[in-house]
């Protein structure tokens, strides 16, 4: 999956700002949509270069030749920035997003320059062709870049603004209609871009929420089984060689709490257990609720690291401490912890779960409850 860098320059951040407050990951996804696909990119670049080439052939003068050179130079620069960004994004490296954003208004300015010199040339054919090309690009600008509404407005102003100025200076009354069309184009495309942007952000937030719910336990907020497997895949891609240990724990005496105090108190107990596990686990650890009163902690701990035994014993000791719950209830439970090794790529996660589960029940049978074993 390609991941493009967020812009860092003040101008880049301003241009790429969405229409509402969004989380960083959604902002990154919005920036990614600005790069689009090669066919869409080539369609816009080919259109403007082709129009500039035809009119440069029709009027082989310095202004029109300069327009053609400008279109080609900007098109090549945009293509280079586009391809470099796609390659670096695929490699997980920083992308030249600011450069790519800055080239977009420059391209719009080249289109506007062509419209201006065509309108002031006195050639109706040239003016009409340049104006049609600029107007056609407005729709593409909006629907390709609505992830950044400000960029849409700036590009339209850069492309149609000079066309309007050229129409005013052309001396042709019929071209004054362009002066009336420009604000309507700008207003309608701005409104459309902002509405589409808001819809896209809402959709992304809904997908993000759905994905979070699908991967997390609704009661404790911990990972569920599916979320644990997915997170383990991401952890396996991390650039570190440390082994990982899987700690499987089961609460001792939880059923008695449910029977004595009710399921509401039992749920509150599970939430407090989850909070203690988060506090004890390392910053990169994965903590999951597998269902019922069973939990899993996966952390990077070497075989000879004393923290391996210490973490398991710390979890068992922490769970043994009384839990203060609402309505004045104080309950005490225990925890049996089994430990197993798991590979970084997660290929033997099922085997590790079974091994740790077996070790956990071995604790219950041979060493008593609220202990840890490998």
From TrEMBL:
Organism phylogeny: Bacteria, Pseudomonadati, Pseudomonadota, Betaproteobacteria, Rhodocyclales
Name of the protein: GGDEF domain-containing protein
Transmembrane segments: 28-58, 64-85, 97-118, 124-143, 150-168, 174-193
Residues of the GGDEF domain: 242-374
SUPFAM superfamilies: Nucleotide cyclase
Xref: CDD domains: GGDEF
SMART domains: GGDEF
Keywords: Membrane, Transmembrane, Transmembrane helix
């Amino acid at each position: 999956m390609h991941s493009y860098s967020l812009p860092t320059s003040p101008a880049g951040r301003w241009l790429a700002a969405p229409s509402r407050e969004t989380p960083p990951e959604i902002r990154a996804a919005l920036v990614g949509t600005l790069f689009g696909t090669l066919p869409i990119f080539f369609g816009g670049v080919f259109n403007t270069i082709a129009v500039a080439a035809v009119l440069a052939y029709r009027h082989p003068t310095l202004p029109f030749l300069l327009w053609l050179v400008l279109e080609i130079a900007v098109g090549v620069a945009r293509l280079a920035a586009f391809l470099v960004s796609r390659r670096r994004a695929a490699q997980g490296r920083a992308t030249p997003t600011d450069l790519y954003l800055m080239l977009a208004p420059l391209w719009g300015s080249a289109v506007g320059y062509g419209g201006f010199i065509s309108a002031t040339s006195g050639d109706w054919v040239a003016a009409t062709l340049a104006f049609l090309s600029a107007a056609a690009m407005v729709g593409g600008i909006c629907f390709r870049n609505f992830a950044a509404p400000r960029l849409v407005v700036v590009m339209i102003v850069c492309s149609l603004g000079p066309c309007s100025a050229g129409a005013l200076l052309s001396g042709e009354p019929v071209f004054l209609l362009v002066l009336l069309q420009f604000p309507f184009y700008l207003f309608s495309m701005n409104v459309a871009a902002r509405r589409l942007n808001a819809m896209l952000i809402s959709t992304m937030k809904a997908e993000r929420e759905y994905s979070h719910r699908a991967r997390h336990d609704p009661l404790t907020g911990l990972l569920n089984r599916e979320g644990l497997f997915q997170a383990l895949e991401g952890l396996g891609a991390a650039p570190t060689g440390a082994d990982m240990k899987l700690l499987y724990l089961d609460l001792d005496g939880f059923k008695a709490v449910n029977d004595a105090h009710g399921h509401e108190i039992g749920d509150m107990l599970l939430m407090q257990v989850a909070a203690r596990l988060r506090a004890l686990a390392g910053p990169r650890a994965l903590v999951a609720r597998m269902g019922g009163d069973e939990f899993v902690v996966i952390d990077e701990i070497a075989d000879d690291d004393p923290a391996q035994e210490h973490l398991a014993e710390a979890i068992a000791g922490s769970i043994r401490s009384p839990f203060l719950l609402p309505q004045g209830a104080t309950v005490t439970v225990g925890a049996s912890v089994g430990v197993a090794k798991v590979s970084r790529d997660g290929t033997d996660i099922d085997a590790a779960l079974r091994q740790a589960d077996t070790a956990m029940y071995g604790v219950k049978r041979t060493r008593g409850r609220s202990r840890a074993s490998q």
